[in-house]
Design goal:
Strand content: 5-15%
Helix content: 40-55%
Number of domains: 2
Radius of gyration: 30 Å
Order of helices and strands: HHHHHHEHE
Number of helices: 7
Shape: elongated
Distance between the termini: 87 Å
Largest sheet: 2 strands, parallel
Number of strands: 2
Oligomer: single chain
């Protein structure tokens, strides 16, 4: 067996001499079910184990793929192991759709992104901000008159956007004299 690929060199060297690779490859077959059939069977198993059917396609299945991918990259063998009970209870507790390179490769990519947008929308629709200003009066010349200008310019710039609900808090530091 020969290969010019240096990345494969150690694997090529590990093959004992005298092995009939052509004979092996002539009998070797790998068969996989159709992707859609695998997804369907996994969905049925998730439903049979208590996952609501309406959450399988956009919540449970992508999070299952994400969980498996996250576990598979761990170096420690024991960290890559999980019981069926723990796996399912983790899936049941998740309320957000996982978006990762693994879940984006699924056929339901658009549905996943749409579900995630819907989950984030309630937070993204809000445009409220909380701002704090810490002011040391000893560092501002003519503090009594300048502070009023600071308040006016800050409020004017923030209220330009009428839909913004911004709360301002000013903290004044008192320095000992």
């Amino acid at each position: 067996m020969k290969s010019k690929d240096k990345a494969l060199a150690k694997h090529v060297e590990a093959v004992p001499t005298g092995v009939d690779l052509d004979g092996f490859l002539g009998r070797f077959t790998m068969e996989f079910d159709c992707y859609d059939e695998i997804v369907k069977r996994v969905g049925e198993e998730l439903e049979a184990n208590g996952m609501p059917s309406g959450e399988i396609e956009t919540l449970a299945y992508p999070n299952a793929i994400h969980k498996i991918a996250s576990l598979s990259v761990k170096h420690n063998v024991t960290e890559r192991q999980i019981t069926k009970k723990d796996f399912l209870s983790n899936l049941m507790a998740i309320r957000k759709t996982a978006i990762s390179r693994w879940t984006l490769a699924l056929k339901t990519r658009e549905k996943l992104l749409q579900a995630r947008r819907k989950q984030l929308k309630i937070h993204l629709d809000k445009n409220s901000r909380l701002r704090y200003f810490v002011i040391d009066p000893s560092n501002i010349k003519d503090f009594d008159s300048e502070i009023v200008l600071l308040f006016l310019t800050t409020l004017a710039s923030i209220t330009l956007s009428l839909h913004t609900s911004t709360h301002l808090s000013y903290v004044f530091m008192q320095t000992e004299t």
